[in-house]
Amino acid sequence: MHQTRDSAEAPTGQAPTGRPAWRARRVAAVVLALVLGVFVIALAAGNLFPAGSNGYATLSSVAWMWLGPDLVILSLVALTLAGVVLGHNGRPLSSVATVVALAAFASSSLITSIIAGATHRDGGSVSFFTALWPKVAPVAADHTETYTTADGQGISTH
Prior knowledge:
4 helices
């Protein structure tokens, strides 16, 4: 009997290789893409409510301020996983995962760009590259002020 490389049967004592292993990897990639995409979309949906209206909206607002660029990268990873699997296997689940990941990428990019635009409008600056790597050391103060009086009264420094 002639065995092909995609055969599920392996010689005695060896693990099966070929098609079932790739199928498991594809399913894992699609499931991971779905989980990541749904997570980002769930955080994005929290922005549909006013920031202080409930705990979910507050958590979502805080998460986007701290993790906006990270969530864009996370949704891009989900889109890449789903797109690669869709290219190799046009099953309905991989199509759904691709659409979910695309929606996650679009919403995370939009929210992050809105935050960056608001920061620029108010005179601040945003660097997405440095935002991806948190600072380990605390930032030193630009200047230090010492007050010796308050309301015309001298301040004691004992």
